[in-house]
Design goal:
Blueprint (H helix, E strand, L loop, with lengths): L2 H25 L7 H27 L1 H7 L8 H36 L9
Helix pairs in contact: 1-2, 1-4, 2-4
């Protein structure tokens, strides 16, 4: 196994673990059951980087797109591996963090709907 494959796998683990840590820390402020939200967000945080990696692999291997753009990326070349990694990992982390912010807003918004306030004459 190549050293860079190990580094990319460690970075992929960071992409999954770091946004989950931030999400779980923010979710403690909620009064609802946490397990279903944690499980759903964990699956979302797995799907986002995998989808991004799939799209980049699709772009790199598409012969029609490569002819149009004149894109020549050799997956065995060290420079192209670093460039692709630098595209995948920061965007995956940012997408996971943005997704967690929207999901937390939705959770807290759903918490506010269940409370009933009676305002009026006594």
């Amino acid at each position: 196994m190549d050293v860079y494959k190990v580094i990319f796998r460690i970075l992929l683990a960071v992409v999954i673990i770091y946004p989950n840590y931030i999400f779980f820390k923010e979710l403690k402020n909620s009064t609802k059951k946490h397990f279903k939200y944690q499980l759903l967000y964990f699956f979302m945080s797995l799907i986002v980087p995998c989808a991004l990696i799939f799209l980049i692999a699709l772009i790199m291997t598409s012969p029609a797109l490569n002819q149009i753009i004149n894109l020549k990326i050799d997956p065995k070349n060290l420079t192209s591996r670093i460039i692709v990694g630098s595209i995948i990992f920061p965007t995956s982390i940012l997408l996971n963090i943005i997704t967690s912010k929207f999901y937390l807003k939705r959770i807290f918004k759903a918490n506010g709907k269940n409370e009933i306030e009676l305002i009026g004459k006594e």
